[in-house]
Design a protein that fits this description.
Elements: H1 10-25, H2 32-39, H3 44-49, H4 53-76, H5 82-98, H6 101-116, H7 118-135, H8 141-160, H9 167-179
Length: 182
Amino acid sequence: MATGHTDPLRRERIIAATLDLIAEDGVAGVSHRRIAARAGVPLGSMTYHFTGIDQLLREAFGRFTDRMVALFDAHLGGCADRDAARAAIADLVHTMSEDGPRELVLTQELYTLATRRPAYRELTHEWMRRSRVHLEKHFDPATARQLDALIEGLTLHRALAREPHDRALTVEAIARITAAAG
């Protein structure tokens, strides 16, 4: 097996393996041994690259939130006006709810940790702040906060429903929240 000197992507593989295991078995199913096996690295690599499981979880969830913000950026970054932003928000809700359970599970696992541990709460606060950046380009801060919550809620409901609501309901909900915003 390669040493860390000749395997510069080892740390990245460990983080990716951590997210994969969390998505499959939850945070409770994560251990150094399981992560190392999934990443294809020696067990000693875990303590070489991370001070402990907590640092690894924070970095893995940080990577996850970066990806989710990038998804926001991809949908909302190029919006020229409020109408384009409204359509992009609807697209975002439907994309996120149809992507499969992985992101939903990772989101809920992070939220569960955040309710119990302040370090993870800081990750979620920063994620929410970054997500609202594009929304606040088109809507006032209060409306952006409401839209952010709507995106989370509609995504969760669509992902878990036996018969997910259609785009018309998403568009109507966004219109209702943004109507007073101009």
